[in-house]
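Final report, results section. Input specification for complex C-07:
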Amino acid sequence: MKLFKFIILSFFLGTLIADATAQEVPVYNFRQLEPLLNKRNDTTYVINFWATWCKPCVKEMPDLMKTNQKFKNGKFKMILVSMDFDIHLQTKVIPFINEQNIEADVILLNDSKQHEWINMVNEAWTGAIPITIIYNKDFYFFREGEITFSELNELITKNLKQ
Amino acid sequence: MKRSFLILFLSILSFSYIYADSYQVGDKAADFSLKNVDGTMVSMSDFKDANGIIVIFTCNHCPYSVLYEDRIIELDRKYKIKGYPVVAINPNDPVKQPEDSYDKMIIRANEKGFTFPYLWDNGQQVTEAYGASRTPHVFLLEKVDSEYFVRYIGAIDDNSKSPADVEEKFVENAIDALIDGEKPDPDFTKAIGCTIKWAD
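Structure output:
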């Protein structure tokens, strides 16, 4: 009986722990995403557009995670906007998040009107991914293409609000 | 302070460098000679009877390119007879992206039954001249007195994921406009795509 109780207890504990670490990935259209690109407060945001199928995006992910790890306890928020299709949420995006141990927020952007919203993210964006935006109310940075930890670290350290 | 000015100066310099080198709508497009998957060399001047060319930078590996393969075949089928054939160019460096090697291009072209040339931009000079920045990336050219001019730059249509949900067929509308002697509207669109894999 004791053993039985133990098994039940570990089962519940196991579910609890799994729930605490499991990442919820909301599916947004651009109208829902847009406010996150235009906050005007003390927080410094890093917004990265990526996809599991995008080789340079996958390559730079460890650098992004290292950055998030370093700054996450300050006035800082990292949001990873996935360009994967919504049908691949369970089969590709969630497994990738678990494999890479991604702690930053992940949002899946499901909005086919790319030719309209790409310019609303940034006029200089051609549409290729990855892109990284770093911003707060006094600072703005945009990069199309890969970014490294040392670049992120320098830009954030300089501009982070205390 | 000096350093940040230098960085600012360098970023402006590199920014203008990238954009100065890209074709804009209205620019004259230079001819090229690139190797097709059948082993022959293909140039724009080979298309004696064409009224224009649908140049599409695309490749094997990019999921967005794959999503458009059937639509590119359909574009060629529909518009070759109207004087606007498709010419596909793989812009990627095969060392950086082995799936886009010349041998794999031949395999893919045969699997899909491409009805158009699928050219390898060995050295990436044509990609650089056009200023293609992603795959797929369309440059619609119109022939005027044996010279080619860029009339539309951008996406094939407004829904990469689902052909059934397309509302605007940008390239088709642009060609129809040219055939009617009008200017394409829009003549520039954006879409999500894969980066060009440049050689180191």
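The helical segments of chain A are 2-21, 30-33, 55-71, 89-100, 114-121, 149-159. Residues 25-159 of chain A form a domain with the Glutaredoxin fold (CATH 3.40.30.10). This concludes the modelling results for the funded period.
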